[in-house]
Amino acid sequence: MRLGVQDLTCVRGGRTVFENLSFEVKKGSGLQLTGANGVGKSSLLRILAGFLPPAAGRITLEGADDETPIGEFCHYVGHLNGVKRAFTVRENLLFWSEYCGGGDIDPALETFNLLDLSDIPAGLLSAGQARRLGLARLQVIERPLWLLDEPSVSLDEASRNILASAIRNHTRNGGLAIAATHLPLGVKFAHTLELGAEAH
Question: Which of 25, 52, 135, 172 is least enclosed, having the fewest CB within 10 Å?
Answer without folding.
Answer: 172
